[in-house]
């Protein structure tokens, strides 16, 4: 096995907890598109009396990029099982970074900023499953998604525990440590919030949507969505 093959087999994977599936993705040609879903929970392909509320938070400033495709496929899979899905595209919303002014601690969780988080916070608290979607920018998530996560601070008490989380990420590089910074942050977030990680897709070596379409990652994202 050459170095490139070792990188792909080690880092590009789908993990579904609660089951026995561990899929290794290294280049099968798959992928399709889904009409963009923004803040819509009404359209479900099947009825599911055990439907969960899923909130998908994206961080890419590219509407039709690699992680947009992963998000679309995940949502398609989740909706095929009747789950209720909300999507919040952080890069196209007005979200200010937390400045640790402690206003929220003195005002029952209300933030001093009046921006898109006022709309998102109720959905965030109500969600059963939180899905973080981001390309790799300098070995971490994008600043747009980071701003949203920083603003979790005002809702820490309401958000801790009772949630499952998933991570979808893509990078142009395929070196085997390119996702380590993001994974470290994600694991710390889950630990602090007492959230249960339910699966990750790490699409290394996919600098463009076209590259991603020529891999099995879109299908894996769909499968992960259907596994909720």
Describe it:
- By secondary structure, the protein is an alpha/beta fold.
- It has a single domain (3-17, 50-226), classed as Flavodoxin domain (Rossmann fold).
- It contains nine helices and seven strands, in the order αβββαβααβααβαβαα.
- It has helices spanning 3-11, 66-80, 103-106, 117-126, 143-150, 156-159, 180-193, 209-213, 217-226; strands at 13-15, 22-24, 53-58, 84-89, 129-135, 164-170, 196-203.
- Strands 4-3-5-6-7 form a five-stranded parallel beta sheet, with helices on both faces. A two-stranded antiparallel ribbon has the order 1-2.
- The protein is globular and about 50 Å long.
- The chain starts with a helix and ends with a helix.
Please state the second-level CATH architecture.
Answer: 3-Layer(aba) Sandwich
Number of discrete helical segments: 9
**Major sheet strand order:** 4-3-5-6-7
Helical fraction equals 25-40%
Query: Which strand-content bin applies to the residues?
Result: 15-25%
CATH top level label: Alpha Beta
The mean pLDDT is: 84
Looking at the structure, the CATH topology is Rossmann fold
Euclidean distance between termini CA atoms:
34 Å
The shape is globular
Can you say what the CATH homologous superfamily is? Flavodoxin domain
